[in-house]
Here is the input.
Amino acid sequence: MQTFLSRGSGSTVNISSAYGSASAAGVSVYVASKHAVKGLTEASASEVARTGVRVSVVAPGTTDRLTRFTNTAENKAALVSTGHSNASAHLMRSLM
Here is the structure.
């Protein structure tokens, strides 16, 4: 952001999700993180509004991969697990 500000132009695009504006049962951590991305983007855009720097958010809709990942209790547990070292690997296997 500092480089953009010193130039007086630039664009940052953050990636959120349709869940950044909605909610769903069983994926509260995911929904909270997407709301946070949207909030961060809006706050950052306000901070640099008159500088020539743009801050935007892209919020794609749901996909079959996300549905498939959260379709079982085991997959939901892996999604919200923060202490399990295999959660990332499990996520990657589920998305393939």
Remarks:
- Residues 63-96 form one domain.
- DSSP finds five helices and two strands in the chain.
